[in-house]
User: Fold these one by one.
Assistant:
Number 1:
Amino acid sequence: MQSSSEQYFEKLDHVRAFAAFMVFTWHFIHAGGVPVNYVPALPLLSLLEEGHTGVSLFMTLSGYLFAKLLDGRQIDYKSFLWNRALRLLPLLTVALLLQAAAWIANGSSVQAVATQIALGSILPRWPNGAWSIAVEWHFYLILPAILFLRRLVALILIFTAVVLRLSLFITGWEIHPTAYWTIIGHFDQFVAGIYVWYLFRGERVRPLAVLAVAMAFVTFYHWFNISGGFYGPQASPVWIYLPAAEAAFYAVMIAAYDGSKLSLPKRLSASISFVGTVSYSIYLLHFWYYGPAAKMVTQYLGLLPFGLSLLCSLLAFVLFLPIAALSYRCIEQPFLKLRTRYARRGPHFRPENSYTGALR
C-alpha cells in the first residue's frame, strides 16, 4: 500500500488482500449453490460465509490508513481530493460504463441509466460494489473534521452513529439497507480506524486483548449468521449495532497486525502484497467473473459442500488475479503517476496523550 508520499505499508496490503478475498468468496460460494442460510460448523468460517463484512474491513482500514499517513502532518485538502479522484475514478468510470452498456443492451433508456448513475453518488445506488466507493467519497468529504479526534470525541461519534440507527429503527425505517449501503452504517468503521491508530500508533497490542476481542466478535458474528445473516429479516435490530461491532473488531485486528513483529516469508508476503495492490480491480471487476466461474464449477462438479466451495473459491480467486493485474496496470497505474503530495510536516492539533497505554 504505497501513498503519494512514497510510504509503503506492506502489512496493510495484506489486510486489503484478505478483505478482497472475503467479498469474492461470499459472492462465489453462494453463486455456486451454497445456500444463503448455510451456517458453517466452525464459527470463524462465518466471516467467509458472510463475506460481505469484507466491505467493513476495507472501510475500517481506510480510516486507519489515512490517520497513519497524516499523523503529525498538515493536509492540503484539494490535493487530497485530487489524489483520491485519480486513485478511484478511472476504474470506477470503466466499471460504470460497462454496467451502463449492459443496462442499455437489455432495454433501459439512456436517460434512465444516466439518472441512476448520477444519483448513485448521493444515495448511493451504484451497482456491483461501486456503491461503496460513493460511501468512501462521503467519508472523504468529512475527513478533515474527524481526522484528529480526541479519544472521548471519537467514542461519542461512534455512540452517536449507533443512536442514529436506533432512532431510524424506532421510526420504522428498514435499518438493514441504511446500515449496509450508506455512510450512516459505515461511519463507525472509519472513525474506529482513525481512533485505533492514535491509540496504538503502530505499537504492540496486548495478545490477550486481541484474543478477547476476536473471540467475542467471532461468537457474536456466528450468532448473527445463525439468526439469518445478511439475508435475514430486513428489519432486524441487529443492524443497529452490527456496524459498531465490526468496527471494533477490525480496528483492533488491523492495529494488532500492523504493530506486531509477525513477519511472513518474503515470497509469501510479496505475493499477498501484490493481491492487496490490485485489490481495487478485484473488487470492482469480479462481479463480471464470479457468476460464470461458479456456474462452470457446478456444471462439471455439481453442487459442492461448503468446504470444497471455499477451495474452489480460492482457486477461482487466484485465476482472476492476472485480469486484476492487467486492469491495475492499464487503467489504475497510469493515473497514479499523476498524484501529488497532499501532506506535509507542520504544526496542527495532535490527539491527547490519553490515547496511549490502553490495551497495550
Note: The chain has a mean pLDDT of 91.
Number 2:
Amino acid sequence: MPDSSRTLLLTGAAGGIGTLMRGLLPAYGYTLRLFDATPIEGEPTAVTADLGDKAALREAVAGVDAVVHLAGISLEAPFEKILRSNIEGTYNLYEAAEEAGVRRIVQASSNHAVGFAPLPGPGGPPLPVETPHRPDSYYGLSKAFGEDLAQLYWDRDGLETVSVRIGACHMEPTSVRMLSLWLSPGDAARLFVAALTAPAVGHTVVYGSSANTRLRWDLSSARALGYLPQDDSEQYAAKLIEEHGEPLPGDPEHDLLGGSFSVDPPQWPY
C-alpha cells in the first residue's frame, strides 16, 4: 500500500488525462515523476523524451515504486505511427520497468480494444470485461496489444498491471455517446489509486468510467479493486440530447462500443 513517500512515474504527463492527474494524484500522497515528449512548463525535473528513447525511460523508471502509463497516440493514426508510439513504446516501457524492479504498472487501455463488440440494449446485461479483443482501429489494436503485453509480463516476470479501458475522461461529456462512457477526472484519480493500492492484482482488466446512469459495461472488476465512483454523467444528458439528438438503431454510435471508430474511415471525434 502506498504512503506519502511513494513515487510514481506518470507518462504522458503533458496530455489531457496526464495534466488532470498531475493536479489530482499528489493529494493521495504520491510524489510524481513526469515523462512526456512535450516539455512541461514549470516542471524543470520532468523527463522530456518519447517512448522510443530507451535511455530516457531507464532514467525515468529508476527508483520509482509504480508507473501510471498514459503516454502514446490517443486517436487513430497511420499504422507506422501507432506502431512506434503505442506498441514499440509500451514494450520499451515494460522492459525498462522490469529491469528497474518496478512491480506495478497502471496503463491506459481503451474501450476501442473491444470496439466492435455489440452494445447491450437498454435493460440488458452490461458488457463483460471478459469480452474478447475486437479492436476497431489501429489505435484499438495497440491497446489490445498493451493488454496482452501486460499479461505476458505478469505470467513470465511477475510484473503486475491494471489495464484500464478508459471510456472518455474529460471535465464533462461532450456527446450523447459519452453519457455512458464518461470518466470524470475525480473518478479517474480514484480508479488509478485503487489500481495502485489493491493487493495481488496480477493482470487485471477493468472498464474505466464513472457510475453513469446510462452505463452499458460492467464495472465489477474495477469495484473489486476498491474503486468507488462518485460521479454520474446524467446531469449533462438533457443538454447534449437537445443539441445532438439520440443515436438511432443501426448507427455505430448506438450499436457498437467503439462508436464511430468502427466506421471506415473513422469519424471524429470518437
Note: The chain is about 35% helix and 15% strand.
